[in-house]
Amino acid sequence: MPLLAPGTLAPNFKGINLTGPEINLENYKDKKTVALVFAPDRVDPGATNQVKAVYLKHRDQIELITVTRKIPGIAMAKAFLQQLGVNFPTLYDPAMNVYKAYGVENPVAMFIIDPTGTIVFSAQADADKVDVKTLDDAIVAHVK
Fold it and tell me: How many separate domains does the chain show?
């Protein structure tokens, strides 16, 4: 299945949040634009901090949700994110249900979902890192 394209209604999902209560995309409908980022498989504190910086820059306008499928363990991942001061939702998707619903075969992929629940931007990126410039540019271009 190809990556979901702009104009497509974003599939709802809910699941384990590594930084707080359960994530449910439906909770953001009619409220905020969501930047949905499928993170690389390898853990990289530098890259995580770059994504966090984009979140901090735009947090009044968007909700950033990252999705990961591989972690060394839930407790370890939670401790790592807490140590880095990450407080945006991080969905743990070991069965890759959200990956499949969005057509993401390999990370990294990014989506911008408007408050109506429609995808307005989607892009596949290098599998090793989030392209924070593309993410930042997409947020600026699609958030009113």
Answer: 1
Phi/psi of residue 124, nearest 5 degrees: -95, 140
Residue 45 scores a pLDDT above 90: no
| 3-state SS, residue 17 | strand
The residue range of the domain holding 94 is: 14-33+46-142
Assess if residue 5 is contained within a domain: no
Cα atoms in the 13 Å half-sphere on the side-chain side of 129 = 12
State both tokens at 117: 């629940």
Which residues are registered as beta bridge partners of 36?
65, 111
Omega prior to 104 cis, within 30 of 0: no
68-126 pLDDT, tens digit per residue, is 998 888 888 888 889 988 999 999 999 999 999 999 988 889 999 999 999 999 999 87
Q: Which of 35, 38, 19 lies closest to 129 in space, CA to CA?
A: 38
Residue 31, phi then psi, degrees to nearest 5:
-120, -60
What is the distance, to the nearest Å, from the Cα of residue 92 to the centroid of all Cα atoms in its chain? 11
Q: In what order do the strands lie in the sheet with 14-17?
A: 23-24, 14-17, 90-92, 62-68, 33-38, 109-113, 119-124
